[in-house]
Amino acid sequence: IGGLAGGPIGAIIGGSMGVMTGHQQTKTDTINMQQQSISELEQELSQTMNKLSQSQKETQLSATKINKLEDEQQQFHQQHREQLMQFANGYQFDIYFMTNSDVITTHAQQGLVNLAQLLKSNQHITAQIEAHSDWRGSNDANCLLAKQRLSAVTDQLVQAGSQSEQLLATSYGEHANINQDSWGDELFYDRRVTITLSYFE
């Protein structure tokens, strides 16, 4: 009877112990797997943090380079601006004409093309254009001739690419002569269009 009774009870107890042992083993395996996963995640996190740190260093280096380039560009712009202002303030281009003529010489035409390109590239520069004639002839005829010379020069500049808003044109006729009452060759210098430049911002 004891043996018979002990058999089932022993089987139950053995089975229960097996279940408990198996359950404990399963918990241990689970903990080990979790610890391994945590370790792997910590390694990934460490790698990510290293990459982030490296990326931050590269970003900081790039920002430093950008600031340096911006400073250099600003210095270059300031230097270019000062040189351009100095050039504009000292610029004068005189175009001379034959008697009773508004024809621009080939040499002067090339100079106007170069000036138009300068104006086109620098919108802060304006050109003051002043047209003159010598004193010979009537006042009306000389004023008309000066206007024709003025139109010839301004048209040439606009055709070469400059903006009309950059051109400040004035015709003086014979009223701003250098050699008033002279009959000599020096009257050549009164038959002129004078161009000066100004820099505005």
Verbal overview:
By secondary structure, the protein is of the alpha+beta class. It is 62% helix and 14% strand. The chain has 3 helices and 4 strands; from the N terminus they run H-E-H-E-H-E-E. Helix 2 packs across helix 3 (139-159). The N and C termini lie far apart (118 Å). The mean pLDDT is 85.
User: What is the mean pLDDT?
Assistant: 85
Strand order of the largest sheet: 1-4-2-3
Helix count from the secondary structure assignment: 3
Principal-axis shape:
rod-shaped
End-to-end separation in angstroms reads 118 Å
SSE blueprint:
Layout: H1 2-89, E1 92-96, H2 106-121, E2 125-132, H3 139-159, E3 167-173, E4 192-199
Parallel strand pairs: 2-3
Antiparallel strand pairs: 1-4, 2-4
Helix pairs in contact: 2-3
Provide a brief overview of the structure.
By secondary structure, the protein is an alpha+beta fold. It has helices spanning 2-89, 106-121, 139-159, and strands at residues 92-96, 125-132, 167-173, 192-199. It is 62% helix and 14% strand.
Q: Which structural traits does this protein have?
A:
alpha+beta, four-stranded mixed beta sheet
